[in-house]
């Protein structure tokens, strides 16, 4: 087992690691504030205790969790130019990064399923998505995240490493660590299983759900009804594109060995992990009228947070 792993910073900023801490910390604080506000509003407002907002609650949990688990190594590089990370810390970060990533993907799929049921089967929707069903979906999401990634730290911890322990990102990721192990074939197979069972299957099912929604909306007679239904889905579809587009681009670049400069590759990975937690609260606050009204009701009159 490698005693330490070496992380890379943002290429081009090695000589001046201090100034880019400002946007990094700003992005994180705004992400925590936005997602924390969503969590507070949904928890404290009884009228929002419905399936759609339960899934939005889980999405905010995964967003703030993902942003938080990336911060230790990012801030270590930014503040102190610390590249060496103990294997135990690297494995722990890798585990939570992938757990929260799969959790976000699973929640986005559940939200697409919820919207499809609400629009395609409106009369049966309350009977189908009961509190008991929603609880089971939430437990299934947790079980899926843990079952896919719980073996990873133990497998990687007991693998011999015959390559220099230099990772290509500013945080620890499973494919990055698995390629250093010898032999690496098992790592490639396990990565393929995880990708196909989550990150490849989920977007296909999501866009299939939206295909069903689009077909139903074509048959809606009123333009106003189509507009309302479209607005309901707009925030979620934007979140889906925001999460999956950088991930798919990174996968294509790695798979086909496209000649992308390393700074662009690293920046794209930052976008994939850090932009959704920052943008999702804004999307849902703007696009979802109930969330927006509850936030304004609690924040503007008293100038205090959601504890009032």
Automatic annotation (TrEMBL):
Every G-protein coupled receptors family 1 profile domain range: 34-284
Keywords: G-protein coupled receptor, Membrane, Olfaction, Receptor, Sensory transduction, Transducer, Transmembrane, Transmembrane helix
Pfam (any one): 7tm_4
Transmembrane segments: 25-44, 56-79, 91-113, 125-150, 188-213, 234-253, 265-286
PROSITE patterns reported for this sequence: G_PROTEIN_RECEP_F1_2
Organism listed in the record: Myodes glareolus
Cellular component GO terms held in the UniProt record: plasma membrane
One record GO biological process: cellular response to lipid
Presence of keyword Lipoprotein: no
Single GO term (MF): G protein-coupled receptor activity
Topology versus the membrane: Multi-pass membrane protein
Gene3D superfamilies for the chain: Rhodopsin 7-helix transmembrane proteins
The keyword Cell membrane belongs to this UniProt entry's keyword annotation: no
Protein name: G-protein coupled receptors family 1 profile domain-containing protein
């Amino acid at each position: 087992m490698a005693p330490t792993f070496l992380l890379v910073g943002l290429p081009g900023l090695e000589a001046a690691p201090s100034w880019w801490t400002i946007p990094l910390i700003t992005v994180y604080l705004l992400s925590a504030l936005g997602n924390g506000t969503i969590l507070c509003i949904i928890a404290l407002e009884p009228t929002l205790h419905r399936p759609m907002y339960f899934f939005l609650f889980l999405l905010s949990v995964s967003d703030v969790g993902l942003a938080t688990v990336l911060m230790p190594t990012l801030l270590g590089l930014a503040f102190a130019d610390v590249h060496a990370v103990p294997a135990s810390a690297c494995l722990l970060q890798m585990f939570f990064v992938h757990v929260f990533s799969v959790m976000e993907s699973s929640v986005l799929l559940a939200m697409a399923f919820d919207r499809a049921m609400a629009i395609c089967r409106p009369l049966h929707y309350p009977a189908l998505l009961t509190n008991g069903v929603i609880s089971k979906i939430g437990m299934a999401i947790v079980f899926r995240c843990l079952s896919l990634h719980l073996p990873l730290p133990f497998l990687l911890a007991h693998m011999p490493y015959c390559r220099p322990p230099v990772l290509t990102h500013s945080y620890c990721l499973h494919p990055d660590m698995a390629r250093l192990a010898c032999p690496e074939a098992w790592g490639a197979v396990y990565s393929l299983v995880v990708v196909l069972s989550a990150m490849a299957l989920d977007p296909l099912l999501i866009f299939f759900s939206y295909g069903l929604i689009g077909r139903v909306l074509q048959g809606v007679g009123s333009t106003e009804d189509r507009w309302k239904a479209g607005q309901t889905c707009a925030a979620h579809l934007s979140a889906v594109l925001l999460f999956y587009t950088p991930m798919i681009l990174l996968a294509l670049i790695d798979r086909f060995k496209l000649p992308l400069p390393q700074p662009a590759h690293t920046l794209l990975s930052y976008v994939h992990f850090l932009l959704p937690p920052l943008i999702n609260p804004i999307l849902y606050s703007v696009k979802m009228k109930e969330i927006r009204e509850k936030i304004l009701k609690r924040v503007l009159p008293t100038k205090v947070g959601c504890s009032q």
